[in-house]
Amino acid sequence: MTIRVADAAESPSFQKAALPLLHDTQLRANVRHATDVIQRKRAAVVGETPDWQELREAASAIKTHTLRHLDSYLLQFEQACTAAGGHVHWASDADEANRIIADIVRQHGGKQLIKIKTMTSDETKLNDALEHEGIRAHETDLAELIIQLGHDKPSHIVVPALHKNRNQVREIFREQMHLPELGNQPEDLTAAARHYLREKFLSVNIGLCGANFLVAETGGVCIVESEGNGRMCLTLPDVLISLAGIEKIIPTFQDLEVFLQLLPRSATGERMNPYNSLWTGVRQNDGPKHFHVVLLDNGRTSVLADAEARQTLHCIRCAACLNTCPVYRQTGGHAYGSSYAGPVGAILTPQLLGMESAQSLPYASSLCGACYEVCPVKINIPEVLIHLRGRVVREQKSALDAEALAMKTAAAIFASRRRFEAAQRIGRLGQWPVVSNGWVKNLPGMLGNWTRVRDLRALPQQTFRGWWKQRVKDGKQADHA
Ligand code: SF4
User: Fold this and answer.
1) Whose CA is nearest to atom 7 of ligand 1?
2) What is the mean pLDDT of each run of 10 residues along the chain (481 residues)?
3) Residue 480's pLDDT is what?
4) Integer Rg of the chain from CA
């Protein structure tokens, strides 16, 4: 079995990848502007929802319950979907999912398919796998179209081209759609995309989507979107394939009442998405004639096995944690090397990969807790980050690793007052070569990574305990006098 999460296993560490991006002022301005706009809209619609906290509690409880009984809910979904005329396929990893989808396309004699935005297909690198089989995938979501035509990578879960501004989009469309006179106003760009996509909608007979929710009770699938291009993909083709992670399941149709209030408000700052599509199996003379659901594991069951981190699978991919994260807002999404950027990517990607790769991601956080505050399903991301940092040290680093040895030494020093005071004395004596005006500016060796981006106060000449002792002594002397 080969678990793949886009190119995360081969990507450089977050710290390395982030450095050049921090110098890209245009990218940082684009990310800051877009996330500010979404955050303002979110705050307004959340502020007018009096039972917001109760909704978050309810969503968290539904997800906790579902994951506890995931095996039976998945089987219930399969049974209900099959009874309604759908076909359910099980994929243990990314390659198997891609193979199943390529086979379905071939069985229906297709050479092309139209796609709704689905980060799960980015996770499995579906487009590349289909291309390899001679099948062309056309993205129809505006942001995904920009990414595809610009040979770029998504940088945000909800708005994958958030790092591009209007002028950059115009350049891509001008070149790729052969429209030298194209303007840069939103209506110019959407009209160009509409014209370009219309021909695909009318000529390609196989559609592919993800799933926001899979309803176990009915075997139904729910997709919410803002543009309407998705609705075209869901209704026009004869064959529809849905690729969904196994954690997308919810038990009942009524549970949607909770999630359809939380998701649009958290993701795009809307009370309701303009397009909410819900369908179950196939119906005669109405929509696709063949419907397939591919249920993807790709490391999710091992996330489920970790009691402290399994809350990661509660995620409904709203991206509210990305928009608020001070780290994501500085670097954008490409530094995470995964389809899942920001705080959720920092906890999801390494876990899907079994903690063998992407080990720098749990450290890509200031642990400020802003992500936890906005998460609509109450995932305690800082708690999971700390847990994963522990796993990186315990499971992946050798006992002789310099950092592990330093931590062990620090633990031994902090465990004994005598050792701690001795270390302070040695530190005070030994720090003079690196101290300037009361600050340590450049530590030697690997410790230099710390002072490269921070200043550190020098150890004071007198400890609090020493000062107190002195004070008591002076007081006694004064009494005697
Ligand atoms: S972790 Fe929470 S806030 Fe972040 S994308 Fe998932 S549901 Fe949204």
Assistant:
1) 315
2) 92 94 94 97 98 98 98 98 98 98 96 96 97 97 95 95 94 95 93 93 96 98 93 95 98 98 97 95 93 98 96 98 97 96 98 92 96 98 96 79 82 94 89 86 80 84 88 80 63
3) 66
4) 26
Residue whose CB lies within 8 A of the most ligand 1 atoms, among 156, 263, 321, 373, for a mutation test = 321
Domain boundaries, the chain: 8-302, 402-473
- CA 355 to centroid of ligand 1, rounded, Å: 20
Residue ranges lining ligand 1, Cβ < 6 Å: 266, 315-321, 344, 374-377, 379
For domain 8-302, give the CATH superfamily. NagB/RpiA/CoA transferase-like (3.40.50.10420)
Task: Using DSSP bridges, classify how beta strands 206-209 and 112-115 pair: parallel, antiparallel or unpaired.
Answer: parallel
Residue 308 is classified by DSSP as T
Q: Which atom of ligand 1 is nearest to the CA of 320?
A: 3
pLDDT for 436 equals 87
- The answer to whether 157 and 322 have CB atoms below 8 angstroms apart is yes
Ligand 1 centroid distance, CA of 318 (Å): 5
Atom number of ligand 1 nearest to Cα 312: 1
Q: How far is the CA of 182 from the centre of ligand 1 (A)?
A: 36
Contact (Cβ atoms closer than 8 angstroms) between residue 281 and residue 240: no
pLDDT at 402: 77
Tokens for 412? 């031994």
pTM over 0.90: no
Residue 66 contacts residue 251 (beta carbons within 8 Å): yes
Confidence at residue 159, expressed as pLDDT on a 0 to 100 scale: 94
Residue listed under structure tokens 């990305």: 322
Q: Rounded to whole angstroms, how far apart are CA atoms 429 and 423?
A: 10
Residue type at 171 in one-letter notation: E
